[in-house]
Design goal:
Two copies of one chain form a homodimer.
Chain A lengths: L14 H17 L17 E5 L6 H14 L4 E6 L3 E4 L5 E4 L1 E2 L8 E4 L6 H5 L1 H10 L5 E4 L3 H7 L7 E2 L6 H6 L3 E2 L4 E4 L2 E4 L4 H14 L1 H10 L18 H19 L7
Parallel strand pairs in A: 1-2, 1-6, 2-5, 6-7, 7-11, 8-9
Antiparallel strand pairs in A: 3-4, 10-11
Helix pairs in contact in A: 2-7, 2-8, 7-8
Protein name (chains A, B): Transcriptional regulator GlxA family with amidase domain
InterPro entries (chains A, B): Class_I_gatase-like (IPR029062), DJ-1/PfpI (IPR002818), INH-QAR (IPR052158), TAT_signal (IPR006311)
GO biological process, one term (chains A, B): regulation of DNA-templated transcription
Chain lengths: ~270, ~270
């Protein structure tokens, strides 16, 4: 079994790293048919420690998009999917993703990537998420988010007056938590990089990869995932939709957010 | 907990569907902290049955990109992550994703989405994948793939003479298996839709969503995942990279593919 790391061009990969990658791949094969116990600490190595903060109800592409970009961009990076609880993280589209460590068992990280959710309010009310971010966020080299993940950063007091973005349906929620609202797709302010809704996480991760490992590493990762997008429609924002459809979508999202905020399950 | 399905505009969601969605969400909450046993059959309902074929070493974004698009595009769709073995699917970037059913336990599907891998050769040699595709592929309403997933379709004899695409590094491998090689990002030929590398799966899924549920459903999904890409670099293909970097990447991938084909672990 190969990892994309395995075929990055030469100079970045020492023999030691190549050997380590092989060991990792062999371990992954052994684990394939079982659910491993969450690791409580970072894998050995000197690479950047990147913590992906997930939670029940997260949007799976928020997490997987940046994960894929960052994992390919540098073979030495050490990645964890963190969650308050161990086991599978059940996403808001029902897919289950493995949490590799719990928040309580994991010290800080060099880079934090916070996923979002169609309904972020339960995660916002879970103090384990917010307390972990409040403790470890200020010590991270980069603090990043995708979609409504920026609401968690803001709830932890990390975006006060900081220019930041989020999913278009949650802009007021972000502003209400003290951020300086931006409507850009990716917003960098110092070491804080936030992304708009769901798919914007890949764009964010390419910016982040360039910051961490240089532009060449980011460009190589982009070519390896063949990220030369050709969406069939100009429909990436409600204002690009046919007017009636755009208005209906905005309205249904307003209703959804209002109800979700007040704890009504499923936005009904 | 809300799912994106929960806030799609009115007319598509009957009261019955809304109630069903609520039940699904409640079930997901219950399962959140445990690893459920794979389901052996499709969830009840009349929606389109979409099978995502995964395997050890798959590229996780190949599967998650289309999953996210299709799950949001229609709240009635019934989605399975299938794999030859039950339990977690260990991807080529180490992330673990839950298989919800095994190939052996699952009858055909209306739509099949085959994920790819940095090293697809072990999956190509696993007859369980190929036999399942050979049996159920011809009966599917749509037969689709992402990245090197098209090699599996071709290996199963489903792309003989059919225009199809794959990751840029694996084009010769696809042609060698009988497909009519295309270098387009998304190629549709009748009911067969194939996508280029990794991130192209989202573009493919939007085409597929439009075919299944109409253009409005696809556009709404696109707006909900805010897919208005802004990659920071023009680097989606090797030919867009600075020449030396592009040449090095092509060369390392040629070496990787040659070694992987001959079963050397990890392309080393």
């Amino acid at each position: 079994m190969a990892e994309f790391d395995g075929f990055l061009p030469g100079p970045r990969l020492s023999r030691r790293l190549l050997l380590r990658s092989t060991a990792v791949a062999a371990g992954a094969l052994t684990l394939a048919a079982t659910v491993p116990a969450p690791r409580s600490s970072w894998p050995d190595g000197e690479g950047v420690r990147i913590a992906f903060l997930g939670f029940t109800g997260m949007t799976v592409l928020d997490l997987v998009g940046p994960w894929q970009v960052l994992r390919i961009a540098d073979g030495t990076a050490r990645l964890h999917v963190l969650a308050a609880d161990s086991g599978l993280i059940r996403s808001d589209s029902a897919m289950g993703v493995e949490a590799t460590a719990t928040l309580a068992g994991t010290p800080g990280a060099d880079v934090i990537v916070v996923a979002g959710a169609a309904n972020p309010f339960p995660a916002l009310r879970d103090r384990r998420n917010i307390d972990w971010l409040r403790e470890h966020g200020p010590k991270a080299r980069y603090l990043t988010s995708v979609c409504t993940g920026s609401l968690l950063l803001a709830e932890a007091g990390l975006l006060n007056g900081v220019p930041a973005t989020t999913h278009w349906a949650f802009r007021e929620e972000l502003a209400a938590r003290g951020a300086h609202l931006s409507t850009e797709r990716v917003v960098r302010h110092g070491n804080v990089i936030t992304a708009a809704g769901v798919s914007a996480g890949m764009d964010m991760a390419l910016h982040l990869a360039a910051a961490l490992w240089g532009q060449e590493a980011a460009m190589r990762a982009q070519a390896l995932i063949e990220y030369a997008p050709e969406p069939p429609f100009a429909a990436g924002h409600p204002e690009q939709l046919p007017p009636a459809l755009g208005a209906a979508l905005r309205e249904s999202m307003r209703t959804h957010v209002a109800k979700a905020r007040h704890g009504q399950p499923h936005g009904l």
